[in-house]
């Protein structure tokens, strides 16, 4: 059989370009099938891939139909990305959002020197050292510290989560007529903080609970004055939704 002759410009004559086009389409089809086989099965993705093939076979541009994520094998559709993308492709959890919101609030209100934000397994805690709120061996809230609690009320009333107020001391014993031990001192401090939120700031009492742990939940060894100061604290814990469901 005689071979087809090439034209003077070196190109193919007649319908010979169809063979090249068919080979290209076949390779593209194989490529898409391979990518799809490595991705998780999803009805929406399947429909979109079918549409991509259809557009390609009809000669339409398909360069904006889909976007491939080569890190995890998924084939996300353009415009269907998560509303809360973060580094690594993960979504922010409710607790992480809460942590970020409280941290930003503390920064905006210049409370970073007096309030430490703790990411607790039960939720997010706003931690205040005892000397910020109370005099030594006292459970009465200092007048110059009430403004701090008033500002923190804005965070508390912006959500419906339960609030746990927890009092802590160092391991130095106390024995007075009002406070026979650190149990009473830590509990009374927690109760007074709750009463301020409820009775002064008008918060819903049903959301609050107060607990005194004495010296039995330290965050540092009671071996230096600095570490003892860390242990004397009040934690205002905003319980996460996951904790509520337990």
From TrEMBL:
It is found in: Cell membrane. It comes from Clostridium gallinarum. InterPro entries: Bact_OuterMem_StrucFunc, MotB-like_N_dom, OmpA-like, OmpA-like_sf. Gene3D superfamilies: OmpA-like domain. Its main location: membrane. CDD domains: OmpA_C-like. Keywords: Cell membrane, Membrane, Transmembrane, Transmembrane helix. The lineage of its organism: Bacteria, Bacillati, Bacillota, Clostridia, Eubacteriales. This is OmpA family protein. SUPFAM superfamilies: OmpA-like. Belongs to the MotB family. Coiled coil: none annotated.
């Amino acid at each position: 059989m005689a071979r087809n002759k090439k034209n003077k410009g070196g190109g193919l004559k007649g319908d010979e370009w169809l063979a090249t086009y068919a080979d290209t389409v076949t390779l593209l089809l194989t490529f898409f099938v391979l990518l799809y086989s490595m991705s998780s099965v999803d009805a929406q993705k399947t429909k979109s891939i079918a549409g991509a093939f259809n557009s390609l076979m009809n000669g339409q541009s398909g360069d904006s139909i889909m976007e491939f994520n080569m890190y995890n094998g998924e084939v996300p559709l353009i415009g269907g990305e998560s509303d809360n993308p973060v580094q690594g492709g993960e979504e922010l959890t409710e607790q992480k959002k809460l942590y970020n919101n409280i941290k930003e609030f503390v920064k905006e209100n210049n409370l970073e020197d007096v309030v430490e934000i703790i990411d607790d397994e039960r939720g997010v805690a706003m931690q205040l050292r005892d000397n910020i709120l109370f005099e030594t061996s006292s459970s009465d809230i200092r007048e110059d510290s009430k403004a701090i609690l008033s500002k923190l009320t804005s965070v508390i009333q912006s959500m419906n989560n339960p609030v746990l107020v927890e009092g802590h001391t160092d391991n130095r014993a106390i024995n007075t007529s009002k406070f026979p031990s650190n149990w009473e001192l830590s509990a009374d401090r927690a109760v007074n903080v709750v009463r301020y939120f409820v009775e002064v700031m008008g918060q819903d009492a049903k959301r609050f609970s107060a607990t005194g742990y004495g010296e039995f939940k330290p965050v540092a060894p009671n071996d230096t004055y600095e570490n003892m100061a860390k242990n004397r604290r009040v934690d205002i814990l905003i319980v996460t939704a996951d904790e509520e469901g337990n």
